[in-house]
Design goal:
The protein is α+β, with helices and mostly antiparallel strands. It has two domains: about 100 residues, Arc Repressor Mutant, subunit A (Orthogonal Bundle); about 60 residues. It is about 50% helix and about 20% strand. A three-stranded antiparallel sheet has the order 1-3-2. Strands 4-5-6 form a three-stranded antiparallel sheet. Helix 1 packs across helix 4. The chain is elongated, with a radius of gyration of 20 Å.
């Protein structure tokens, strides 16, 4: 395929064809089988070095215009695959390298897990008596299940802890509960 996409930030083995980027988006949405946030998909493919973020955004707009994907909310923040897009994915996904498909799929799953984890977890960074703290709370509906408050050196550390926490909050909370109930 012709290299017609902007290559800024794309690693060796990434996608440089707008057609391939469109096929990859259809493949991801078809494989995931749930709505995916457009901005995060664009960012994740860019940060993984798979495709240029601007090209992904353009591809999303093109796919929506042609009916292969559709927004699931009024803001157009989340997209899902349409039957037409599913056909594209089924017919053309093998034109993409297995490595690219796998990297994109895994990165998208991790992104969706973080989104789901964030919905069930609340964070607050605060200052008390000249000290900084982060409070992490697991929530079931509206009911707080467990809350952890930790002293942190600064707000930047709190942001780092938050990101690490969102990778698997249930494992962290489960480990704490196991230790406390021995």
């Amino acid at each position: 395929m012709e290299n017609d996409a902007i290559g800024a930030g794309v690693r060796n083995g990434g996608l440089f064809s707008t057609t391939e980027i469109r096929i990859l988006i259809c493949y991801i949405l078809n494989s995931i089988k749930e709505p995916v946030p457009a901005a995060m998909l664009s960012n994740i493919l860019h940060f993984e070095g798979i495709a240029n973020g601007f090209e992904v955004s353009d591809a999303l707009a093109h796919l929506e215009k042609n009916g292969q994907i559709s927004p699931v909310d009024d803001e157009g923040a989340y997209y899902e695959i349409t039957p037409s897009g599913s056909s594209v994915a089924d017919e053309l996904d093998s034109s993409l390298s297995l490595t690219v498909r796998k990297r994109a799929y895994i990165a998208t799953l991790k992104m969706l897990a973080k989104i789901k984890n964030a919905k069930g977890t609340r964070f607050r960074i605060s200052s008390e008596n000249g000290y900084s703290y982060i409070t992490c709370t697991a929530i079931d509906g509206k009911v707080p299940l467990i809350e952890i408050k930790m002293l942190i050196p600064d707000e930047k550390s709190g942001t780092f802890i938050r990101e690490k926490f969102l990778e698997n909050p249930s494992e962290i909370f489960s480990d704490i509960i196991k230790k406390l109930s021995k």
